[in-house]
């Protein structure tokens, strides 16, 4: 269901597949790639990006706090796969960068659409797709560990 690279751990690969099954990712006609990497940009615990056809997930072994404990890495996997579900289902769309010409000046802006609502340059702490992922990650982790 998900192509996993960057680890030989059968436990971690099996957990990833359990999370994918729990989130019913097979219902969507998407290709998922999950790569366990040494670290992600800006020392994040993980990233998920793509579109309804092709979704890429990165999970860090090291984040801003140092080496990520295995249980916390599994929570990060749950969090990012929740984003994969949001993207695959069409609920979250990454609109990318664009030139915003409002107010007579040109600025670079970033656009997302979540549940049909457009968000321009929405601060991380205000992003509803992040709120949802944080609210659900523990339940997904506990159900799949």
Mean pLDDT across the residues is: 95
* General form: globular
Helix fraction, binned, reads: 25-40%
How many structural domains? 1
**Largest pleated sheet:** 5 strands, mixed
> Low-confidence parts, pLDDT < 50 over ≥5 residues?
none
Provide the succession of SSEs: EHEEEEHEEEH
Radius of gyration: 16 Å
**Span between termini:** 18 Å
SS strand fraction: 35-45%
The tally of helices reads: 3
Number of extended strands: 8
Structural class: alpha/beta
Descriptive key words:
8 strands, 3 helices, 34% helix, single chain, 145 residues
Describe it for me?
The chain has one domain (about 1-145). It is about 35% helix and about 35% strand. It is built from 3 helices and 8 strands. A hairpin with a 2-residue loop joins β4 (about 55-65) and β5. α1 (about 10-20) packs across α3 and α2 crosses α3 (about 130-145). It is globular, with a radius of gyration of 16 Å. The model has no long low-confidence stretch (mean pLDDT about 95).
In short:
This protein has 145 residues and is of the alpha/beta class. It is built from 3 helices and 8 strands.
Task: Lay out the secondary structure.
Blueprint lengths: L1 E4 L4 H13 L8 E9 L6 E5 L3 E10 L2 E2 L2 H19 L3 E9 L6 E8 L2 E4 L7 H17 L1
Parallel strand pairs: 1-2, 2-4
Antiparallel strand pairs: 3-4, 4-5, 6-7, 7-8
Helix pairs in contact: 1-2, 1-3, 2-3
